[in-house]
Structures are given as C-alpha cells and as structure tokens.
Write a structure and sequence with these properties.
By secondary structure, the chain is an alpha/beta fold. It contains five helices and 13 strands. Helices cover 28% and strands 21% of the residues.
C-alpha cells in the first residue's frame, strides 16, 4: 500500500511539474550541497534562478584536482565570489600528483605554493575540519585558529616541526602515509592517530602534547 501511494504521489508531482527540491529551506539545501565537490556545487547555479547564488554560501570546500587542471584559476574565482560565511569543512585532496619522471622536491614546492592561499582562506573563515592530501604542507604557513577542531593530513612530508600550538581547540590530528622528520607541538591536542608513517631512525621524534589522552600508531 505504501509503495502504491508513493508511486501515485510521484506521478502527480511529475505531472504537475513542481520543483519540490527548490522549495526546501536554504539551510537544508546548503547542508546537502556541502557534500558536493566545489565544482559541482557551483554548477548547481544552472538549475534554476533559486539556485543562482546559493553555492556562494555553502559551508564547505571540497577540492579534488591536480596540476593538469585549471584548479588554481577556478579556486581563485570561487574564493573571490564566495560569501564570507564560516566554513565547517575544507577538504583538499589529490592536488599536484607526482609522476615517476618529476622531481619530488619540485612537486612539493609547487603543491605547497598552490594550496597555501586556500588554507589561509579556510583558516580566516573559521574552518572546523581540515583535510589535506598533498605532497607538502606550506612551510611558511603557521596554522592559527580558535575554531579548528580536527586536522587530517595524508601523503605529506614534514622536514620542519609541525607547530600547532596556535590551534587553541584542536582535538584530533590524524596523519596517514606521512614522512615525519621533526617534532609535533600542540597544547590542546587530545587524540593523535598516525598510520603508515615514516620516521628518521637517526633523529629522536618528539610529541609535545600535554593534554593527549590517546595515541594510535599503525
């Protein structure tokens, strides 16, 4: 009976030509759009007039591009046009992939320069969850945030200490397939997860996190 009623309702809705999705409140639509890649979120502006500027207030950035695309140009325009609303999530994934013929040091430098302005934007807009999968973290960028609660880093190389002392409410740091040659500092950190990490046997690795309650190594 339920399926029959549902089918009738769907048929009536389709026959009436009503756009029920666009009738949903902004907060709900923005929540749904926050799971889309940023490129796809912007593309929703073509759906209808109701959607023309909605993408500007999506509380998430999801970037999945390498240097073969025009991701930097797209991101420059996106950040320029976006409303100054706080970010819940900034997810930078698979940026600047290295091939077997590329110089790894050059790839690290290019990746670092590429993502640095995106990270600065995210921190300035009170991002709470930061996920980055890239060859290197910008060496000249010191994360300062009173909102950042979770950081997930993947495939990164750290030649310098990772100082997160200025992230006053950071609760979770997760590092996967990272090369770590220096120390980690964070006063507020409570949970540290390190998976498939690579350490320098000749250098003593130090974790300075006085409030740490759990450490997972895999």
């Amino acid at each position: 009976m339920f399926n029959r009623r549902s089918r009738r309702l769907m048929e009536r809705t389709m026959a009436s030509g009503k756009d029920r999705i666009s009738a949903l409140p902004d907060d709900l639509l923005l929540h749904v759009m926050s799971f889309l890649l940023s490129r796809d979120a912007v593309r929703t502006c073509m759906l209808a007039r109701r959607w023309s500027t909605l993408w500007k207030s999506v509380p998430a950035l999801h970037i999945e591009d390498d240097l073969a695309t025009d991701s930097n140009k797209f991101m420059d325009e996106l950040l320029r046009l976006r409303d100054p609303a706080p970010l819940n999530v900034c997810d930078i994934c698979d940026v600047c992939k290295a091939s077997d013929t590329e110089d790894p040091e050059n790839v690290c430098e290019v990746a670092s320069n590429l993502i640095a302005p995106w990270l600065r934007y995210a921190l300035l807009h009170e991002v709470r969850v930061l996920r980055v999968s890239a060859p290197a973290f910008p060496t000249d960028l010191v994360p300062i945030s009173s909102h950042l609660k979770r950081i997930e880093l993947c495939l990164m190389k750290f030649d310098d200490p990772l100082d997160l002392s200025s992230c006053q409410v950071l609760d979770v740091l997760e590092m996967t397939y990272c090369n770590i040659y220096e120390s980690i500092f964070c006063q507020s950190l409570r949970h540290l997860n390190m998976k498939h990490g690579c350490f320098d046997n000749e250098i003593r690795f130090r974790i300075s996190a006085p409030n740490l309650v759990s450490l997972k190594l895999a």
